[in-house]
Design a protein that fits this description.
single chain, 199 residues, mainly alpha, 8 helices, 0% strand, membrane, UPF0056 membrane protein, cell membrane, Multi_antbiot-R_MarC
């Protein structure tokens, strides 16, 4: 796999367009003056986490005695909880925070941008061809940069959709996220059973 192909793959897994409704829902409860700063902070957090996993993910999991499947199952549980709040809104929105209170690390950086799928893909690239870490780093930066540009223009989508449109998209995305989160859980359990020979 060349660098550009890896970048395209990582970009599709990050799915910034699919994440937009969730980000819009989260940022609606943040002070408008702080929204862009929060977005930049969370994007930088996600990049640091992804680079960390690319270079030291396997060692981190081994040190903590965790399997890769645990990353998938944990991400699935978090996404499921977010999805339920999107379908059945609470006063604090999907994060459960009071109006004006900022999300920190979860759920924007993890698992929306640096989700289990992207972390597992980075682990796979690093393990398969460890001599090409520069290529994989460049691919990750390209994919993250493209995603960041799309997510930074969330306000354009906010104006296009309006309040009712956002609510409708939020509920729809909630339904899709439920299915995605269940699939993550099933994949994690399936891989665990395969590795342990219990499947």
């Amino acid at each position: 796999m060349d660098t550009f192909s890896a970048a395209v793959m990582l970009f599709l897994i990050m799915d910034p367009l699919g994440n937009l409704p969730v980000f819009l829902s989260i940022l609606r409860h943040v002070d408008p003056k702080r929204r862009r700063k929060v977005m930049i902070r969370e994007l930088l957090f996600s990049l640091a986490i992804m680079l960390g996993f690319l270079f030291a993910g396997q060692q981190i999991l081994s040190f903590l005695n965790l399997r890769q499947e645990a990353v998938s199952i944990a991400g699935g549980i978090i996404l499921f909880l977010i999805a339920i709040k999107m379908i059945f809104p609470t006063p604090g929105g999907v994060t459960g925070l009071a109006a004006g209170e900022e999300p920190f690390l979860v759920p924007m950086a993890i698992p929306m941008i640096a989700g289990p799928s992207i972390l597992a893909s980075l682990l796979l690239l690093a393990n398969q061809e460890p001599t090409r870490m520069t290529d994989w780093s460049l691919a990750l930066l390209m994919a993250w940069g493209a995603s960041a540009v799309i997510l930074m223009f969330y306000e354009v989508f906010n104006k296009l959709l309006g309040e009712r449109g956002l609510t409708a998209v939020e509920r729809l995305m909630g339904m899709l996220l439920v299915m995605i989160s269940v699939q993550m859980l099933l994949d994690g359990v399936h891989h665990y059973l395969e590795v342990t020979g219990k499947g």
